[in-house]
From TrEMBL, chain A:
Protein name per the record: Cadmium-translocating P-type ATPase
Keyword check for Transmembrane: yes
Gene3D superfamilies: 3.30.70.100, Calcium-transporting ATPase, cytoplasmic domain N, Calcium-transporting ATPase, cytoplasmic transduction domain A, HAD superfamily/HAD-like
SUPFAM superfamilies per the UniProt record, alphabetical: Calcium ATPase, transduction domain A, Calcium ATPase, transmembrane domain M, HAD-like, HMA, heavy metal-associated domain
InterPro entries found in the cross-reference section: ATPase_P-typ_cyto_dom_N, ATPase_P-typ_P_site, ATPase_P-typ_TM_dom_sf, ATPase_P-typ_transduc_dom_A_sf, ATPase_P-type_domA, HAD-like_sf, HAD_sf, HMA_dom
Membrane topology (UniProt): Multi-pass membrane protein
Record keywords, A-Z: ATP-binding, Cell membrane, Ion transport, Magnesium, Membrane, Metal-binding, Nucleotide-binding, Phosphoprotein, Translocase, Transmembrane, Transmembrane helix, Transport
Superkingdom of origin: Bacteria
NCBIfam families in alphabetical order: ATPase-IB1_Cu, ATPase-IB2_Cd, ATPase-IB_hvy, ATPase_P-type
TrEMBL record, chain B:
TM ranges: 6-26
Superkingdom as given in the UniProt entry: Bacteria
Region (Disordered): 31-52
The keyword Transmembrane helix is annotated on this UniProt entry: yes
Lineage: Bacteria, Pseudomonadati, Pseudomonadota, Alphaproteobacteria, Rhodobacterales
One protein family per Pfam: FixS
Signal peptide: none
Entries under NCBIfam families matching the protein: ccoS (TIGR00847)
Designated name of the protein: Cbb3-type cytochrome oxidase assembly protein CcoS
Length: 744, 52
């Protein structure tokens, strides 16, 4: 990952926390307005083209289920699932929002996330992919036809027939090379201009030299022409290039598009009127209004209103925190229950959020750039090939007393024989096979070298809230409640978007509980919900508000009339596959750490449940980075798995990093791999596949080297015929491809 | 040997037709979703009448 773009992304970090869109998670109802507004702004008459990611789709039934459900949705004109990319594109009226569709899909059991069609560079990337495919097609066609002619020559065509066949080959090969070889020529030219000797320089040189020498030989009625070699070289290398491109395009587009539609805006109170302004225009002293469900755009002190805020993504605390007049809040917290008015203390560069972004930028720049196996191979390969070829040319000039034609022939043969076909295919073929395998398991590789880095990992550091746990509370003792109490609690809970209330409501819906009708339901921000049931006042909320005793665990309380309050306790739910992932990692001999910003009790309980011996609670973001850096300094290769903003710096500092799709944009940007599904178990698989993939890459290099050791001396002493070149090239390419497919 | 005067052009033309067909399939975006296409065969949704 390069430093600059990531840092650039992070300087925009406040944008991720200000827009209404984020509120999707906290307040679905508030969402209709902003999405309609966005659509109106884009002014698309043809209707919105929405794109959703479908991480769990995998079969024919999924395709027809999803397409049918979406087509039935009012306002949807057409829907088409792309199973390869696990996406669905929807053509719909402007009134249809992505959230409606996500809800529809959720209803039939498919998880869906919105992708940003604006960020869809897909049209551009598709064009490049199709372009490469065309070139592969052309060179494949030419290769087959020339090979037919070449075989006749090799089997003994003589004189005029041979010349004719060579001329026909030239007529096919020259336009083909000129068209299909362009990607290599262009990239070789750029690297030469930059004063480097990339892999594409010897490739281009070999293609051009082989073609021009063959034309010269054909004109002089020579025996050997290398048209087939030139075209075959182009074909195999294009296949490698395409595989490489395809892997990266799939990963890049999906990762980019996961970025939600977030606009950095804040609601400013100016002379009593609400004005929407960009976040960077906020100054200390400004009064801003934060609706329930929205993220706080700048650090500030509450002047009016009471509410609770969710800090889990900032600090890892799983419990909402009370906020009333005088409380100091940080940018990035989510306002949960009541509207708040804040006086800005620090905005933009000075806010806590930005200090965090700076921390990430520092971690990024401290990390040395990883040199991939392919780069190391290319670095050794290019100079070696040039030296060999030029030495062969010089030696044969001297031996033959200045026979230019013969010496050039030899040096071209050397360039062709040392063909980087296998080298150009070795890495892309393995990476394609491995990332395809991981993609099917729900892991998206964002960075090309991520697999190699992942293979070296020996220590895994997990974040708690949102990573090992779902980050959402789950009521634990509902059995202790009578059906009546549960019903009342659920009815009250439906009046609030507080996470605890929503958890109760969801549990009631899941049990198909009959929810009684209440009167006068109203939310008292910061305290709870109140209503009237059968003439009695019923309340659900904080302990002190109901006269209940506050316990040590996360809990809410229910009081019906004058009866004693009932306590409903909550626990954070373990993410599915978390236990499997941790035990599989331990079985693989990796050290596992748990580091969280949450309180000690919650962290130690989870560590015990999962059997993690090394844990740390109450860790600040800086301490998380420090832990990763300390481990690295001890020589460990750390894999960081985290989702919050407080993990972002540690994600950037670690040797490799994974974040779930539910993670913050900044965290996903900083990590190498995104976990698309809910399940955490693929993390252990990823490490296993990565180790295997690195093994295959090394084997492929070994195969290429063995071929060269055999073939290069033959070329050097001048015994290489076009037949030998063709054989060496195709067998080595096919062996490496087959070897890559052995990946399990 | 005179027969190659026919055979070579014929082989080139046939190959060229294949190449044109390939161009068309790329342009028609038939390689966008290979996995989905292989699964769609199993769906009987549009067996009776084509998608309108």
């Amino acid at each position: 990952m390069s430093v600059a773009p990531a840092a650039g992304r992070l300087t925009e970090a406040p944008s991720d926390f200000t827009d209404e869109h984020v509120s999707a998670s906290a307040c679905p109802a508030c969402l209709a307005a902003p999405s309609a507004e966005d659509l109106a702004k884009s002014g698309d008459i043809k209707g919105a083209r929405l794109i959703l990611s479908l991480p769990t789709a995998h079969c024919a039934v999924c395709i027809s289920d999803v397409e049918r459900a979406l087509r039935r949705h009012p306002g949807v004109r057409s829907a088409r699932v792309n199973l390869t990319l696990k996406r669905v594109s929807v053509d719909a009226e402007g009134t249809v929002g992505a959230d409606d569709l996500i809800k529809t899909l959720d209803g039939i059991g498919y998880e869906a996330h919105e992708l940003d069609p604006g960020l869809l560079s897909a049209t551009e990337t598709d064009r490049r992919g199709r372009d490469l495919l065309m070139r592969i097609g052309v060179s494949g066609f030419a290769m087959m036809n020339i090979m037919l002619l070449s075989i006749s020559v090799w089997s003994g065509a003589e004189d005029a027939t041979r010349d004719l066949f060579h001329w026909i080959s030239a007529a096919i090969a020259l336009p083909t090379v000129a068209f299909a070889g362009q990607p290599f020529f262009a990239s070789a030219w750029t690297s030469l201009k930059a004063g480097r000797l990339g892999m594409d320089v010897p490739i281009s040189l070999a293609i051009i030299l082989a073609s021009s020498i063959s034309v010269f030989e054909t004109m002089n009625h020579g025996h050997h022409a290398y048209f087939d070699a030139a075209v075959m070289l182009t074909f195999f290398l294009l296949v490698g290039r395409y595989l490489d491109y395809r892997t990266r395009a799939v990963a890049r587009s999906a990762a980019e598009e996961l970025a939600a539609l977030e606009v950095p805006r804040a609601t400013l109170l100016r002379d009593g009127a609400e004005v929407v302004v960009p976040v960077n225009e906020l100054a200390p002293g400004d009064l801003i209004r934060v609706r329930p469900g929205a993220r706080i755009p700048a650090d500030g002190e509450v002047t009016e209103g009471t509410s609770e805020t969710d800090r889990s993504l900032l600090t890892g605390e799983s419990l909402p925190v009370y906020a009333g007049p005088g409380s100091k809040l940080n940018a990035g917290e989510v306002n949960l229950t009541g509207p708040l008015t804040l006086r800005v203390i620090a905005a933009g560069k000075d806010s806590a959020l930005h200090r965090m972004a700076d921390l990430v930028a520092m971690a990024e720049s401290a990390k040395t750039r990883y040199t991939s196996l392919a780069e190391r191979a290319a670095r050794a390969y290019s100079p070696l090939v040039h030296i060999l070829s030029f030495t062969a040319f010089g030696v044969w000039m001297w031996l033959t007393g200045g026979d230019l034609r013969f010496a050039i022939n030899i040096s071209a043969a050397v360039l062709i024989i040392t063909c980087p076909c296998a080298l150009g295919l070795a890495v892309p073929a393995v990476v394609t096979a491995a990332s395809g395998k991981l993609f099917r398991k729900g892991l998206l590789i964002k960075d090309g070298t991520a697999l190699e880095r992942l293979a070296e990992v020996d220590t895994v550091v997990f974040d708690k809230t949102g990573t090992l746990t779902m980050g959402t509370p789950h009521p634990e003792n509902l059995d202790a409640l009578s059906t009546e109490e549960f019903g009342v609690a659920a009815a009250l809970a439906s009046g609030s978007s507080h996470p605890l209330a929503r958890a109760i409501h969801d549990a009631a819906v899941a049990q198909a509980l009959a929810i009684p009708l209440l009167e006068d339901i109203r939310e008292v921000p910061g305290y709870g919900v109140e209503g009237r049931w059968n003439g009695q006042v019923v309340r659900l909320g904080r302990a002190d508000w109901l006269g209940a005793e506050a316990g040590a665990t996360t809990a809410t309380h229910l009081r019906i009339g004058a009866a004693l309050p009932v306590t409903i306790r909550f626990a954070d739910q373990l993410r599915p596959g978390a236990a499997e992932a941790v035990s599989a990692l331990s079985a693989q001999g990796k050290r596992v750490f748990l580091v969280s910003g949450d309180v000690e009790g919650a962290v130690s309980a989870l560590a015990e449940r999962l059997g993690i011996a090394n844990w740390r609670a109450g860790a600040l973001p800086q301490e998380k980075v420090a832990l990763v850096n300390d481990l690295t300094a001890e020589g460990a290769r750390v894999l960081m798995v985290g989702d919050g903003l407080n993990d972002t710096a540690a994600l950037a500092a670690a040797h490799a990093s994974i974040s779930p799709a539910s993670a913050l944009d900044a965290a996903r940007t900083a990590s190498d791999i995104v976990l698309l599904g809910q399940d955490l178990a693929p993390v252990a698989d990823a490490l296993r596949v990565a180790v295997q993939a690195r093994q295959r890459i090394k084997e492929n290099f070994a195969i290429s080297i063995v071929y060269n050791i055999v073939a290069v001396p033959i070329a050097l002493i001048g015994l290489a015929t076009p037949l030998a070149a063709a054989l060496a090239m195709s067998t080595s390419s096919i062996t490496v491809s087959l070897n890559s497919l052995r990946l399990k | 040997m005179g027969v190659i005067a026919f055979l070579i052009p014929i082989s080139l033309i046939l190959g060229g037709l294949g190449l044109l067909a390939f161009f068309w399939s790329v342009k028609a975006r038939q390689y966008e979703d290979p996995k989905g296409d292989s699964e769609r065969i199993l769906s009987d949704e549009f067996d009776d009448h084509p998608k309108g």
